[in-house]
Design goal:
The structure is a single chain. With 238 residues, this protein is α+β, with helices and mostly antiparallel strands. The chain has 2 domains: 97 residues, Glutaredoxin; 105 residues, Up-down Bundle (Glutathione S-transferase Yfyf (Class Pi), Chain A, domain 2), CATH 1.20.1050.10. Helices cover 51% and strands 8% of the residues. It has a 4-stranded mixed β-sheet, covered by helices on one side. Helix 1 links the parallel strand 1 and strand 2. Helix 1 packs across helix 9 and helix 4 packs parallel to helix 7. It is globular, with a radius of gyration of 18 Å. This is Glutathione S-transferase. It comes from Pannonibacter phragmitetus. InterPro entries: Glutathione-S-Trfase_C-like, Glutathione-S-Trfase_C_sf, Glutathione_S-Trfase, Glutathione_S-Trfase_N, GST_C, Thioredoxin-like_sf.
């Protein structure tokens, strides 16, 4: 029986690849949600009220006022949020165990590789105050390898897992938006290019990627904002 959501889900968010995962899923689900911006360039992720729901001081996080048993629940880590919402609403996360394992495999692949490695690549190519050839080559090569893995997987497939559009696709697509700054050429990865275009035709994906765009555009470019870089790249426990 379909689950209805009456009270909005709180989405603690900033428009980044990890944030987009959740905004895309919420748009696909069509459930009410309220965005609570967490400006990571200004250090808002260290506010006590945010740390209470996201102790790793990373967004996104959600608060569902209609959680299990009707009681509120908070969830941090984008992969855990995707799984929670997929289970709750019975959508984009197949109930069949074999298919669910496949989705989980590719979700964990993104969480452990196609995310952290691409992020490090982007950091050392664009933001690092000192250009370190070893680090730049290491992460560029790993990024290239991961795009190759994804390209091979998508050969003859419309989506990455379970023969259907799932949270695994949503987890990956936001990170693929940055292919240029990651030093990639999508012409090398035709199956990724076709998959990316296919997902970007979906209205909910378009809306999810647009959430917070104006907020982000109001800020100075991160490449030029030294104060924001100190916050983001010099983080210590507080």
């Amino acid at each position: 029986m379909p689950v209805t959501q009456t009270a909005p889900i709180e989405l603690h968010y900033w428009p980044t690849p990890n944030g987009w995962k959740i905004s895309i899923l919420l748009e696909e689900l069509g459930v009410p949600y309220e965005v609570k911006y967490v400006n990571i360039g200004k250090g808002e992720q260290f506010r006590p009220e945010f740390l209470a729901i996201a102790p790793n001081n990373r967004m996104p996080a959600i608060v569902d006022p209609e959680g299990p048993g009707g009681a509120p629940i908070s969830v941090f880590e984008s992969g855990a949020i995707l799984q929670y919402l997929g289970r709750k609403f019975g959508a984009f996360y197949p109930a069949d165990e074999r298919k669910r394992v496949e989705v989980d495999e590719w979700l964990m692949w993104q969480m452990g590789g196609f995310g952290p490695m691409l992020g490090q690549n982007h950091h050392f190519r664009i933001y690092a105050p000192e250009k370190i050839p070893y680090a730049m080559d290491r992460y560029l090569n790993e990024t290239h390898r991961l795009y190759g893995v994804l390209n091979k997987r998508l050969g003859g497939r419309a989506y990455v897992a379970a023969d259907e559009y799932t949270i695994a696709d949503m987890a990956i697509i936001g990170w693929a938006q940055g292919w240029k700054n990651q030093g990639m050429d999508l012409e090398e990865f035709p199956h990724v290019k076709a998959w990316k275009a296919r997902l970007e035709e979906r209205p909910a994906v378009q809306r999810g990627l647009a959430v917070g765009r104006e907020e982000r555009e109001r800020q100075a470019s991160l490449a030029d904002d030294k104060d924001a870089q100190k916050v983001l790249f010099g983080q210590r426990a507080r």
